[in-house]
Amino acid sequence: MTSPSTVDVTHTCGESDDLTAVHRNDERWRCVDCRREWPCPVIRRRLLVLYRREPVKLRIYLRHFQDRAAVQLPELSTRQLDTRFFGWIPDPPSGRRRRSA
């Protein structure tokens, strides 16, 4: 059995956040604090705030967890894992500016 993972978003990003509850995953990738699928809504919100200026780093960070989850949850398809780990991340702005007429 693999030990639970702890998400230390403060250490990862170098910014502080209220981490009164750790919200780590168990071996079935459910949050041990709120019992929802991990990443749970609490972690999602925290990660969006902490990585707001570095969306590529957020995806790299989550890819690590997705790879581990794929091994521990072989019954889930790649599409299901992609939705779970990345489907909640907003698309980056296009970077295009409208020209005034």
Low-confidence stretches: 1-20
The counted number of beta strands is: 0
- Return the structural class: mainly alpha
- Give helix and strand order, one letter per element, not per position: HHHH
- Report the β-strand fraction as a percent range: under 5%
- Round the mean pLDDT to the nearest integer and report it: 80
**Terminal CA distance:** 63 Å
Approximately how much helix is present in the residues?
40-55%
Largest sheet: number of strands, sense, barrel closure:
none
How many helices? 4
Tertiary shape: globular
Brief overview:
With 101 residues, the protein is an all-alpha fold.
Provide an overview of this structure:
The protein is mainly alpha-helical and 101 residues long. The chain has 4 helices and no strands. It is globular.
Name a few traits of the molecule:
mainly alpha; 101 residues; globular; disordered N terminus; 0% strand
Write the layout of secondary structure elements.
Blueprint: H1 9-13, H2 41-50, H3 55-72, H4 78-86
Helix pairs in contact: 3-4
